[in-house]
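Quick one - inputs below.
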Amino acid sequence: MPINYYIFLSLALFCIGMVGVLTRRNAIIIFMCIELMLNAVNLLLVAFSKMHHLAKVSADATAGIDGQLFVFFIMVVAAAEVSVGLAIIVMMYRNIHSVDVNFLNRLKH
Amino acid sequence: MVITSRNPIYSVLWLIVTFFSISGHYILLNAQFLAIVNIIVYAGAIMVLFLFVIMLMNLSKTAEPKKNRWLKVAGGLAGGCLLLVLVAALRNTELKSQLAQVNEGDIGLIKNLGKELFSTYVVPFEISSILFLSAMVGAVVIGKKE
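Output:
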């Protein structure tokens, strides 16, 4: 399958995630959009890893395996990030009884 | 659908659908290990955590307050412009002739990935375990009632 189909698919996913971050005001939905962007990048990494593997398979039998391991590490970091971020959101809800990020603009004063 | 649903729970369910389709793409690219990890970690653990937090906060009744419509339009416009610029930039690259290997190749199998992970990438693996430990401690400390 040509690589640019994968490029455009993950580009579309990334832009949807970015529009979500820019337009929504609910902190949890912003968080989910960040997950969506991370997944778009993961998909592109796997596609490029397979592309590199196909190009270099005659010289090196495991060419392109690094990309898939990077995807694994991105998932690890995303899991850690979600646990801490959701704890922060729960604490924020407990303090101001809302998950609207507009109420957080006190931070700038 | 993830970003247009009013109710956050519907948003989560659509995101799970998206993750399953991405896992399907991984299987098509013959990266079985990543597909399984994606389903277990994302669609399983992380989304259950999201649902749990949303139901804990009882958010489904409280509608999102009315906000500035121009902000929404500007956000959509900015995202659309980003998509347009990137598509225009990448449309005529030389990558068009490159193929991604589909349905064959064994670098995505657990055997090869594990061998590489525990030989070349063993130090980042251990560092990620420390990261998990600190994330766990941080989540407990933040979430604790003071």
